[in-house]
């Protein structure tokens, strides 16, 4: 099994920045890719960004050029640097790990962007 613990959410003004962290533990050798997803109130969960074991990244169009996903293999941690935040970025952000035979989710961290 894989355990994921997110941190770094909070309240920020529009135009500001936040960095989310997702620390993985457990059977980390089985992780193929990790990513960030978000779910706004009343909406479906959506992809934000993903990164493979090899470092290939993918972003939702809505965050391209503003968000950057990265990983520290030594620390088994994935980061999401969020710049130029918009009110519509407000959501609960979830970390996800895609493993060989399973998918794991973190508990989520709230990001609120105010005007």
Question: Which tags fit this structure?
Answer:
115 residues, single chain, 11 strands, mainly beta
Could you please describe the fold and organization of this structure?
- By secondary structure, this protein is mostly beta strands.
- The protein has strands at 2-7, 10-13, 18-26, 31-39, 46-52, 57-59, 67-72, 77-82, 91-99, 103-105, 109-114.
- The model has no long low-confidence stretch (mean pLDDT 96).
- 0% of the residues lie in helices and 59% in strands.
- The protein has no helices and 11 strands.
Largest sheet: 7 strands, mixed
Task: Return the structural class.
Answer: mainly beta
The whole-number mean of residue pLDDT values reads 96
How helix-rich are the residues, as a percent range? under 10%
Radius of gyration: 13 Å
Principal-axis shape equals globular
Cα separation of the termini? 40 Å
Number of strands: 11
In percent, how much strand structure appears in the residues? over 45%
Order of helices and strands: EEEEEEEEEEE
Count of helix runs: 0
Low-confidence stretches: none
